Amino acid sequence: RFLTPPTAFLLKKYAKVKGGSAKGAAETVGSITEAQLREIAEIKLPDLNAYTAEEAMKIVAGTAKNMGIAIEGQE
Questions:
Q1: How buried is 67 (Cβ within 10 angstroms: 0-12 exposed, 13-18 middle, 19+ buried)?
Q2: CA 12 → CA 26, 57, 63, 64, distances in Å?
Q3: How far apart are CA 5 and CA 9, in angstroms?
Q4: What is the dihedral sign for C-alpha 14, 70, 50, 18?
Q5: Residue 16: per-residue pLDDT
Q6: Stretch 12-17: mean pLDDT, rounded?
Q7: Are 64 and 11 in contact (CB under 8 A)?
Q8: What's the DSSP call for residue 25?
Q9: What is the pLDDT of residues 18-75, one digit of tens each?
Q10: Buried (b) or exposed (e) across 49-60, using 16+ Cβ within 10 A?
């Protein structure tokens, strides 16, 4: 079975940034929309410890936050 691309790779691609923040959540380097978050979560769903897209979205959102990528419409 093939693994899906790394979450960080997908987040960087969708946010159109070269890399994550060196300061983590303290610094925002880019942003993605809620729809893009769902898309990434659906791609990653087979590899994540989650049963629903909503659960996967929370996991991906946590990764995004740690990389300094904001999700539009979320604090």
A1: buried
A2: 17, 16, 11, 9
A3: 7
A4: positive
A5: 97
A6: 97
A7: yes
A8: G
A9: 999 999 899 999 999 999 999 999 999 999 999 999 999 999 999 999 999 999 987 6
A10: ebeeeeebbebb
Place of tokens 């999700």: 71
The dihedral built from the CA positions of residue 13, 17, 18 and 21, taken in this order, carries a sign that is: negative
Q: How many CB atoms lie within 10 A of CB 36?
A: 19
**C-alpha distances in Å from residue 18, one per residue of 8, 47, 53:** 11, 24, 26
Distance between CA atoms of residues 1 and 41, nearest Å: 19
DSSP state string for 28-61:
--EEE-HHHHHHHHHHHGGGSS-SSHHHHHHHHH
